[in-house]
Amino acid sequence: MRNAGLAASAVTLTPGGFSQGTSEEEQAGAVFHVFAFQWKPEATELQKQKAAKDIAAFQGQIPGLVDTHVGPNISPRGKGYTFGGIMRFKDRASLDAYTQHPAHLALLAWLVPLIDAIELDLRA
To answer: Looking at the chain, which terminus has fewer C-beta neighbours within 10 angstroms, N or C?
Structure first.
């Protein structure tokens, strides 16, 4: 795809290629929240373990959170990102609510100073 720009609507990879999503499709369906951390030198092993435990504990606390998988990155191509996870939400509204949920905000309060992170949100 030469000279391809960013599309305003969702694009889905299908066996036949790419398909353009409609705005109605964009509002429905599962959303995946993917994240990876590069720990700063001051992060302790206990803090790393607490992060994994706290993120896993969101399951059952956060409405609309369907699945949570979190742990050390085992890829040799991780480019310094040594920890990460995938969370599946039932829809975009659930993901949006998660970002402001008190449990998530409490985690961010102590975790953000210890990491450099990357995040991706993808539709299923």
So the answer is: N
